[in-house]
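> forwarded from #structure-qc
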């Protein structure tokens, strides 16, 4: 009887102990998993892209690529996403430490060891995503990227951003992929009744398909629109390629409607719209009234049409500018739009009249 009583007492204390030992690790893992999945929830995902001059054309479109990655991650793991271009002379590390910024994208060579931060290289070892030290957040980003990389969507992204057509490199051939944004360009070219390759050639001459392009006068993004003009055509996020192309297409559509009253020849109307996109509608109207177009605008229009010929695999129509293909060198970032000064002057005059 004594032995049986001792055994019962042993079981009485053993069973609760086993239950605790078995259940706590399971619930702990569930809590950890839940915390990991929700570590970016509850507020906007705030991201800064600061690749600067490290983003050279020969490397692909690194800023645009990381912008799309951030948008995809944000849509899956946050309530909303805010992405902005960081200033080259600002480090933003304090913003990460103070939790006023969630992700900073910079060249890997610029980051030295920092105890309060974690450096991740989800897509490219030359580019680093820096976050505040938090094992759940780092785990969440890497797990998400691993799943993305295994999907067909990722291989398509790589092709768009790193294997597109570069007229300085690929010569005269008809490319299957021109830019990372061909789908957006095709969709919006229909709005203005253009061959999508013509719209692509205009965008190349504006920004070389770089979402981070800025002009000295303040034009921003793929379509290099001035802020007031952009706003009037529904563009809120000037960094966003889809929004930028849509707004630029609406602007070109308006220009074509305006010049349609001056000519019934579609080719003439298209040329006037291209010229006007460069120098401003007011200046082009002056040209129609007898004033000669500026040399910059003439060169711009010819460059766009020449590049359109390249994109079609045809010989360029203007032999005198054929060797330059476009007005810009492959790695320039400033002064994107030669006609931007004229457009900026017109916008300022418009503001003064109100």
């Amino acid at each position: 009887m004594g032995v049986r009583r001792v055994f019962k007492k042993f079981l009485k204390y053993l069973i609760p102990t086993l239950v605790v030992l078995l259940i706590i690790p399971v619930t702990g893992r569930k809590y950890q998993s839940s915390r990991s999945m929700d570590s970016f929830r509850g507020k906007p995902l705030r991201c800064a892209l600061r690749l600067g001059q490290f983003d050279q054309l020969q490397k692909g479109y690194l800023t645009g690529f990381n912008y799309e990655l951030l948008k995809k991650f944000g849509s899956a793991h946050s309530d909303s996403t805010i992405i902005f271009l960081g200033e080259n002379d600002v480090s933003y590390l304090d913003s990460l430490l103070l939790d006023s910024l969630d992700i900073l994208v910079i060249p890997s060579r610029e980051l030295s060891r920092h105890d309060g931060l974690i450096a991740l290289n989800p897509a490219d070892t030359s580019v680093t995503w820096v976050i505040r030290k938090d094992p759940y957040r780092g785990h969440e980003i890497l797990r998400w990227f691993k799943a993305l990389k295994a999907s067909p969507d990722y291989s398509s992204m790589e092709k768009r951003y790193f294997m597109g057509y570069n007229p300085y490199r690929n010569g005269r051939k008809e490319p299957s992929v021109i830019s990372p944004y061909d789908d957006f360009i095709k969709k919006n070219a229909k709005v203005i009744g253009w061959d999508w390759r013509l719209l692509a050639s205009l965008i190349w001459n504006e920004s070389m398909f770089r979402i981070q392009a800025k002009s000295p006068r303040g034009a921003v993004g793929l379509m290099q629109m001035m802020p007031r003009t952009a706003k009037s055509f529904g563009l809120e996020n000037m960094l966003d390629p889809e929004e930028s192309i849509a707004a630029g297409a609406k602007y070109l559509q308006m220009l074509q409607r305006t010049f349609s009253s001056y000519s019934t020849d579609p080719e003439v109307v298209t040329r006037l719209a291209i010229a006007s996109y460069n120098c401003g509608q007011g200046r082009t109207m002056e040209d129609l009234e007898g004033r000669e177009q500026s040399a910059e605008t003439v060169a711009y229009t010819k460059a766009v049409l020449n590049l359109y010929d390249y994109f079609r695999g045809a010989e360029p129509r203007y032999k005198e500018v054929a060797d330059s293909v476009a007005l810009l060198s492959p790695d320039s970032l400033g002064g994107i739009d030669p006609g931007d000064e004229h457009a900026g002057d017109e916008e300022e005059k418009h503001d003064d009249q109100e």
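QC bot note: The chain has two domains: 45-159, 169-353. The beta strands are 45-49, 81-85, 103-107, 117-120, 127-132.
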